[in-house]
Design brief:
Blueprint lengths: L8 H10 L4 H13 L7 E4 L1 H17 L9 E5 L26 H8 L3 E6 L38 H8 L5 E6 L5 H7 L2 E4 L19 E6 L2 H11 L29 E5 L9 H16 L3 E5 L7 H16 L16 H13 L2 H14 L4 H22 L5 E5 L14 H5 L6 H6 L3 E8 L5 E8 L4 H15 L10
Parallel strand pairs: 2-3, 7-8, 7-9
Antiparallel strand pairs: 1-3, 4-6, 5-6, 5-10, 9-11, 10-11
Helix pairs in contact: 2-3, 5-6, 7-15, 9-11, 9-12
């Protein structure tokens, strides 16, 4: 039954419903695959019993003719989502051993839909990173390899465990979170699909906060259809989240169509930047041709404030992180390191509990929020963010969806990028959509000269996930991307 792990979520759903196999067979096969893939370090916690419990409920429900939409589907859950009674550490030493007494709204929605949990997926600490190297539990190793090389590659970040698990077929699908590209960049590196919906589509309640005005949950899976299936289950209004959108959840799967007749695709001239490998731009040009073949017309657009997006993001996100991470003080939960007096305990706990990248961002954030610098940095960044949103609004007067590359490179080796500023550049194409709160998706388009996946990036107007998914489907059908990593683990 090992071939079950190569199936998409849609294929597993339909095969289970037709009686081709049981949910228990699916869960047992995935549990065995997870146990055999420890070399990838994709999971921080494995929960095989949870997957089997959900499978037994699915098999029973099938016998009664009452099946929820994700019955029989085992998923991986990023370690940023609170899971009742199961370690939720956000990839950090400071939350080691924390077992929340509550469930995040997104994971609760997936459970209501019938999904089981295979385990918690490794990630960059507090979602701060682009390579999964900042995790307190060690880096995730991508299942992909360069041609004629055994160098361990990054699966991207911060949702690196999610990307690696789906690419290696040790999860049928996975949850991710995206603050500045943390679903889309790892999806591109791992040759899978990932979508960040409009800000507010998925509840943030029960998700460990990084930057509250940017964080958004989304699905990662093998195909565009699978992402649509998962997003329908994840999304919805939540009164516990003040930023949650009180809107009905569209039927994205049934609305899928690769016919883009009448749709206008915007190509932003500012995204042609120096230093990007020729293969990235060649794939972008190929993506343009694929969308034209699907019936779309091409429009050149301008997003003039794009060049300010990355510095704007790296002011706003650390500022919000500085505030959000103040709660980790050793008093109420998580790690506690004794020190001299209360301030000594605070200092010792945070010094030992936080990694270098988290400390760096807390210090940057505290600095830009401090008296004398707040207006010079944080206020100005918020003004630029407003201009970036305005750029997109003007662009969507002329087009329906925007096509760009997802990342400026293919996956790089573990330890190859040590300069923080160089690492931040991984998000150069993804950050603008995050600052504007727009839906955006990465779809695999092809392989580079070293045999590594490259992704194409689609940005939609507010609340228009359907057009993003449809354009992604058009690319998926025309690219014929079926490459999967050769098993070495």
């Amino acid at each position: 039954m090992t071939e079950l792990t190569s199936r998409t979520i849609a294929q597993l759903r339909d095969g289970f419903r037709s009686g081709e196999f049981s949910a228990r067979e699916v869960a047992e096969t995935y549990n065995a695959a997870v146990a055999a893939a420890k070399a990838l370090n994709a999971y921080t916690v494995e929960t095989p019993d949870d997957a089997l419990y959900a499978a037994e409920a699915a098999d029973k429900a099938r016998g009664q003719g009452n099946l929820p939409p994700l019955a029989g589907i085992p998923l991986g859950i990023k370690d940023l989502f609170a899971t009742r009674g199961v370690n939720t550490t956000a990839g950090s030493r400071i939350l080691k051993g924390f077992k929340p007494p509550y469930e995040s709204t997104v994971s609760a929605n997936l459970r209501k839909a019938g999904a089981g949990m295979l385990g918690k997926l490794n990630m960059d600490e507090f979602a701060m990173g682009s390579s999964n190297e900042t995790s307190a539990y060690g880096p995730v190793i991508s299942p992909w390899r360069r041609k004629d090389s055994n160098v361990g590659l990054t699966p991207g970040g911060s949702s690196g465990g999610s990307a690696a698990a789906v690419a290696a077929s040790i999860a049928a699908g996975a949850t991710g979170t995206d603050t500045g590209g943390s679903i889309r960049q790892p999806a591109a590196f791992a040759g899978i699909c990932g979508i960040k919906p409009t800000y507010g589509r998925c509840s943030r309640w029960g998700i460990v906060s990084f930057a509250s005005s940017l964080d958004q949950a989304g699905p990662m899976a093998k195909t565009v259809r699978d992402c649509a299936i998962l997003l329908e289950a994840m999304a919805g209004f939540d009164p516990k989240d003040s930023t949650s959108l009180d809107l009905p959840v569209p039927q994205w799967e049934s609305g899928l169509s690769s016919n883009l007749s009448g749709k206008r695709v915007g190509i932003p001239k500012e995204y042609r930047i120096d230093g990007v490998p020729a293969e990235i731009n060649a794939l972008w040009d190929q993506g343009i041709e694929w969308l034209k073949d699907a019936g779309a017309t091409l429009v050149e657009i301008s997003l003039p404030h794009t060049k300010y997006a990355l510095p704007t993001y790296y002011i706003i996100a650390p500022a919000e992180a500085s505030s959000n991470l103040a709660r980790y003080d050793g008093v109420r939960y998580g790690l506690r390191v004794e020190g001299e007096g209360l301030n000594g305990m605070y200092s010792a706990t945070r010094a030992e509990g936080f990694g270098a990248e988290v400390k760096r961002r807390i210090m940057i954030g505290t600095y830009v929020l401090s008296a004398g610098f707040y207006d010079a940095y944080f206020t100005k960044a918020q003004k630029v963010r407003a201009l970036i949103k305005q750029d997109f609004r003007k662009a969507f007067d002329r087009c329906d969806v925007i096509l760009t590359p997802t990342a400026p490179s293919a996956a790089f080796g573990i330890g190859e990028t040590t300069d923080p500023l160089a690492m931040y550049l991984n998000d150069v194409f993804a950050v603008p959509a995050s600052l504007a709160g727009l839906p955006a998706m990465s779809v695999p388009g092809g392989l580079d000269g070293q045999g590594l996946p490259l992704g194409l990036h689609l940005i939609g107007n507010e609340l228009d996930e359907q057009t993003v998914l449809n354009a992604g489907l058009a690319i998926e059908e025309r690219s014929g991307f079926t490459a999967r990593p050769e098993k070495w683990w």
